[in-house]
Design a protein that fits this description.
single chain, Nitrogenase iron-molybdenum cofactor biosynthesis protein NifE, 13 strands, NifE-like, Rossmann fold, 5-stranded parallel β-sheet, Nase/OxRdtase_comp1, 4 domains, 485 residues
Length: 485
């Protein structure tokens, strides 16, 4: 078995995965080794997933070893922002062509790494394997090792060619690259009793910046974010954290579990979406840090901060309650948003008519059931035809989803709000829930919906009579002049 096959097998056997949690060791290994079928990677391949997971490390040069289309299709797939370096925004690729297929692309890759280091001098270079070089046998691990020795810079191979599986598998393979080559390779200048890691936080539209001030006020230092607005050297020192919050278990559960196993860093799954969930995350991390030797008064200070911020948030949300009370929402997303956004919207009096369970864990399902009091409104898949029927029949007043399903809502003449990674408004923290509610309010009360819902002239019952009157007016009364009737 090749090194790549071994790595994929180990990720699929991840005991922390929701699918594997209830299985014994033997069943877990037997049940996950399934051959992929054509089209299994639709919606994003393993390479795309690895790039999504790692590209928010902003001071690193991300070099895609493959045809130029691989870099073009994966660049800027999320609106992740940086507070410093912007080299992550530059698209680096070896641009493999037919001759490289014949003669191999290893020398071209080596020259590309040298050019990046000479021109940009980043703290590290991440090299992403794609389908083409993987199929012709390019050994990117060997090239990266040779380049690192020659140029004195970390050159990290991310071996996640697209054909090995889905985007979610690629997320985990990207995490494995950090575990194998980055985390634990440096020591921080200093440590504190309140150092934490955020795992699965990507700083989409600057969401991290809405949460970080809360931790700063409590004296909790975010040692490393994996990977939003991340820095290579910070991620390399992540093994010295005292605790961690996992914000996307489907993507990086392997990172959180292995860091607990290797370095004794306990973690819990939390969410920064919604007033109650943000408060819950602050309470849990404070209690966890106290157990890890943090200040004894940390939970008390956290409660004071929570009381102040909740009061401010509810005061800002109060004007929306009367306008949104009883409005029905169809939520088509996945992961932690499947339950955290449900809780947030119920807090302002909205009714959830359905929430998708895509990319969720068994724990996520239990949380939805607990929040909503039933599992009747949970669904794993919602075909566009069924989604359109629900919206057309006015079962929901607004839909929250990703960009790919917005056209179903628009066809049904239903207000729609972007909630996935393509959005332009930050939803995290106490400020984030106000932003979300404001976006929903603007969508629901936009005057365009009154206009588009009016029947077209040919859809009115008396359209034939109107047409005859217009024709008569045009031919007889106007006598060739413009009719203003």
């Amino acid at each position: 078995m090749s090194a790549l096959q071994q790595k994929v097998a180990s990720v699929l056997e991840e005991p922390g995965c929701a699918t594997n949690q209830a299985k014994g060791e033997k069943e877990r290994k037997a049940g996950c080794k399934k051959q992929l079928t054509p089209g299994a990677a639709a919606g994003g391949c393993a390479f795309d997933g690895a790039k999504i997971a790692l590209q928010p490390i902003v001071d690193v040069a991300h070099l895609v070893h493959g045809p130029i289309a691989c870099e073009g299709n994966s660049w800027d797939s999320r609106h992740t922002l940086s507070s410093g370096s912007h080299i992550y925004r530059t698209g680096f690729t070896t641009d493999m062509n037919e001759m490289d297929v014949v003669y191999g692309g290893e020398k071209k890759l080596y020259r590309a790494i040298k050019e990046i280091i000479d021109k940009y001098d980043p703290p590290a270079v991440f090299v992403y394997q794609t389908c083409l070089p993987a199929m012709i046998g390019d050994d990117i691990e060997a090239v990266c090792k040779a380049a690192a020795a020659k140029f004195g810079k970390p050159v990290i191979p991310v071996n996640a060619p697209g054909f090995v599986g889905s985007k979610n598998l690629g997320n985990k393979l990207g995490g494995e690259a950090l575990l194998d080559y980055v985390i634990g390779t440096r020591e921080p200048e200093y440590t504190t009793p309140c150092d934490i890691n955020l795992i699965g936080e990507y700083n989409v539209v600057g969401e991290l910046w809405q949460v970080k001030p809360l931790f700063d006020e409590l004296g909790i230092r975010i040692l490393a974010t994996i990977s939003g607005d991340g820095r290579y050297n910070d991620v390399a020192t992540a093994h010295k954290a005292r605790a961690a919050i996992m914000l996307c278990s489907q993507a990086l559960i392997n990172v959180a579990r292995k860091m607990e196993e290797r370095y004794g860093i306990p973690f819990f799954e939390g969410s920064f979406y919604g007033v109650s969930d943000m408060s819950d995350a602050l309470r849990k991390i404070s209690a966890l840090l106290v157990r890890q030797g943090g200040p004894a008064d940390l939970p008390e200070r956290a409660e004071a901060l929570i009381a102040r911020e909740e009061a401010k948030a509810w005061a800002r949300l109060e004007p929306y309650k009367a306008r949104l009370k009883g409005k029905r929402v169809l939520l088509f997303t996945g992961g932690v948003k499947s339950w955290s956004v449900v809780s947030a919207l119920q807090e302002v009096g909205m009714e959830i008519v359905g929430t998708s369970m895509r990319k969720t864990t068994a724990n996520d399902r239990e949380k939805v059931k607990e929040i909503m009091g039933t599992d009747a409104h949970m669904f794993d898949e919602l075909p566009p035809r069924e989604m359109y029927r629900m919206l057309r029949d006015s079962q929901a007043d607004v839909m929250l989803s990703g960009g790919r399903s917005q056209f179903v809502a628009l066809k049904a003449k239903t207000p729609w709000v972007e909630i996935n990674q393509e959005r332009h408004h930050a939803l995290a923290g106490y400020d984030g829930i106000v932003n979300l509610v404001d976006e929903i309010d603007k969508a629901l009360y936009n005057p365009v919906w009154q206009q588009v819902r009016q029947p077209a002239p040919w859809e009115r019952p008396d359209w034939e009579q109107d047409l005859e009157e217009w024709q008569s007016c045009n031919q007889e009364e106007c006598a060739g002049e413009v009719c203003h009737g």
